[in-house]
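Troubleshooting: if your tokenizer reports a length mismatch, compare your output against this known-good record of 108 residues.
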Amino acid sequence: MKQLMLEALTLASARGRLASFSVLSTAIYLSRYHWLDHLSLWGNLGFSRAPSIGLTRAYWLLLHGQPVAAWHRNWLIYIVLAVGVPLLLKDLAALLARRPGRHSISIA
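Known-good structure output:
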């Protein structure tokens, strides 16, 4: 368990990245929307406009089935997901390929 926590904190392995993504997505999903209002580092430093402001809230909206509202909150969430989802799928494929007892299926 310690090893997985270290991997998740450092994002050093496929297993750690998937664990981090799962835990953070679950935490964001279970959070109240207004709890995420003051998470932005840029906003806390006094900037009113920065590209990353609103990404967490946009992700929350996506997780709750509101893609249009997510677009209006911060449209960059779709670029983040366009980059992130394939990376997570690659990590998942790598983990599944390493599972012991896995049988490969070939279709001729």
